[in-house]
Amino acid sequence: MEKTLAIIKPDAVERNLIGKILDRIESNEFRIAAMKRTRLTLPVVEGFYNVHKDRHFFKDLTASMCTGPVVLMVMARDNAIPEWRKLMGATNPKDADAGTIRKDFAIDIGKNSVHGSDSAENAAFEISYFFSQTEIQE
Ligand code: CMP
């Protein structure tokens, strides 16, 4: 079983979409191996998205992740990283396929409702950034 880090972002938590998104996740063979609802601070978000620190959208991205609570999850299944990216849909909801979370729930590229790790290396970093080993049970 592969693991990935998922975030339900502030725009989705604000619109009471946690349950609908969790239903999509559990209906698609993912096990939720760890989960917490929390509010992130700017330094924590800046560290999490450090890979994007030189991108033009970094300031907006980090600010928007601090506008309200988020749900952080470790999710496990076969091919969890690509399967979660498929279920989320394209980063920009305008480009997302029908039936994906971003197509159905996201507002725009900044308020795109969910995050997922994009590689095994980033998944390992992102999971350990938010969860200790003892908090994760498959
Ligand atoms: P996420 O999967 O969380 O990874 C980085 C985030 O940056 C992305 O989703 C978007 O919400 C946000 N973002 C804002 N503008 C852009 C852009 N032009 N290209 C990619 N990501 C962007």
Explain this structure:
- The structure is a single chain.
- The protein is an alpha+beta fold and 138 residues long.
- Helix content is 39%, strand content 19%.
- The protein has seven helices and four strands; from the N terminus they run βααβααβααβα.
- The protein has helices spanning 10-14, 18-27, 42-48, 58-64, 80-88, 101-105, 120-130, and strands at 2-8, 31-38, 70-77, 114-116.
- Strands 2-3-1-4 form a four-stranded antiparallel β-sheet.
- The longest helix has 11 residues, at 120-130.
- The protein is globular, with a radius of gyration of 14 Å.
- It starts with a strand and ends in an 8-residue tail after the last helix.
- The mean pLDDT is 98.
- Adenosine-3',5'-cyclic-monophosphate binds next to loops.
Layout of helices and strands:
Elements: E1 2-8, H1 10-14, H2 18-27, E2 31-38, H3 42-48, H4 58-64, E3 70-77, H5 80-88, H6 101-105, E4 114-116, H7 120-130
The structure holds adenosine-3',5'-cyclic-monophosphate.
Morphology call: globular
Helix content: 25-40%
Question: Main sheet: which strands, in order across?
Answer: 2-3-1-4
Round the mean pLDDT to the nearest integer and report it.
Answer: 98
**What does the largest sheet look like?**
4 strands, antiparallel
Which residues form runs of ≥5 with pLDDT under 50? none
* N→C terminal distance: 9 Å
**Class by helix and strand content?**
alpha+beta
How many distinct beta strands? 4
How do the helices and strands follow one another from N- to C-terminus? EHHEHHEHHEH
User: What value does the Rg take, in angstroms?
Assistant: 14 Å
What binds here, in terms of ligands, is:
adenosine-3',5'-cyclic-monophosphate
Beta-strand percent range: 15-25%
Number of helices: 7
